[in-house]
Amino acid sequence: MSDFTPIQRHGHLPARIAAELGARIERGLLKPGDRLPTELALTRSFAVSRTVVREAIAQLRNEGLIETRQGAGAFVIQRAARHIRLDDAQAMAPHAFQDLFQLRLPLEIEAAGLAALHRGPDHLDRMDDALARMAGGDDGAAVMQADLDFHRIIAEATGNAYFVQFLGAISDRILSTIIESRDRQSPERIAPLIDREHRALRDAIGQGEPAEARAAMRRHMLQSAARVGLRLQVLG
After folding, report:
1. Which residues form the HTH gntR-type domain (predicted)?
2. pTM for this one?
């Protein structure tokens, strides 16, 4: 791994590091059973903080490319055990935002409805924590990560691992859409809108109302798309 070089400082850094490591796994440079370099080694190789490296490792784990073992590190897993992984070149094409939102719309809506049926107290507590981090954070990157966490918790609350895998596979793209949304409008104007939408989602899920949770997610997704200048096709 000594041939890694510091990455360019644009885009979402954890996603860029995860993409670099993921590409090496896909090309066979890192094989099943291989141990990834230590957190410290990756920090030095990429010239980033430990927090960035930890987020990149978490993304690779969500994508099913690696597993982490307590006290031993992170290891590449067998291809048959892997989860969903998107093609990086295709996902970064100009049409990616439109396609991403169109794909997310029905899946996120159904996830919200299922979460209302299956959520537990821990899911609600973690959703509240994510909302608090979004509302009280001055660090833009931390706020965006909290936004992503909020959606991931909803996926986990469905009790269906494929929803979690889907969000894990596109987490960096989701962050890109969040960044795009916040770049287009002033934080002072957009933050209250997003907070209101998220709290409506949390309330519906917390009250165990699947129909209202689905409706709240539908409104949120359509508004999110509108904030980045997209119009989704909505059926029914």
Report:
1. 11-79
2. 0.68
